[in-house]
HSac2 domain-containing protein
Amino acid sequence: MADGKEIEKTNSASVDGGQQVIPLDEEDKTAQEDQFVGATLELNDNNKNPADQPKVAFAGPGGDQSNTRTSTTSNDSQHDDAGPGLSRNRPGSVIGSRSTSSTSSRTSMRPNFIKSDVVAKTFFSYKGQNFETALQECRNQVKPDLDGKILGEWLLAEIDHWNMEKEKVVLLTENSVLVFKYNFITQTLYEFRRVMLHGIDTIAIGDFKYPDYSIMPDRQHGGVQLRWNKGSEPTFGQRWNPWCTDIPWLTFAHHPVLYNPKENETTTYNVDEFYESLLQAISKAYEEKRPGEKITVVEGPILINSYANIATIVHNDSGMGFFRDRNGISF
């Protein structure tokens, strides 16, 4: 579990007692020497009530076209677009939500993939008050003077750089995204990672895609990726180390429980709800930390560099990254 020590000034991401920290600016009392060139994402909602849950308006490209489209938005509402928009005509690409601040789903869901209520209950995060218990412990790691107020809480599937799915608790605050690895069986917080919103330079949303010569089975669903690498790729050592903790991006998809028909309208497991809330939060963070700059929002396939990884197939098909009751054996 992360301890309470202050984050020391550094030029690269650091790990302290299970806590992964993305460096901050001098004004945040923790510094990052190499500043990126980002952008301000302008999101407006004229009918927004500050007392309500954050409302979001899509500020990226739209349309029912194909291929990939890249958009950058700023306070003057200027757009730099390239290529047609991402098609929404995909099976299961629209799901509802009880949240008044939600919009229709922007990422596709797995076609004909259904988790019955019996299967959903095998997830320990779905049992009793386990998720609320996890949230209470995760909230204790939030630093109000650094992170600000909590804006939203989700249970999502993270896809790491080795294409392995893992169950993660995600908190969105006014200034950061915190991602927690929590054991729902032993109710133990293993580690967490903090990424400052104004350090993110690109947000990608779309269907997951493998390289052309990959033999990996098609994922047939989409997700969201947050990047702070300024277009640079990880080193050879980072890419081929499955335990590397400083990969400069985070990739999320819907939690499997969302495929339970009873939970189709629950925002907790929906990565699109996280995406919409993130857009609004990062807009405000940029206004304060990077006024006049731009953030890039990309709609299109999200590349997963995996070619022939049998271990990944076994890991994902068996749900090893999720804490479940497996016929009396829990792990």
Q: What stands out?
A: The first strand starts at residue 14 and ends at 16. The radius of gyration is 19 Å.
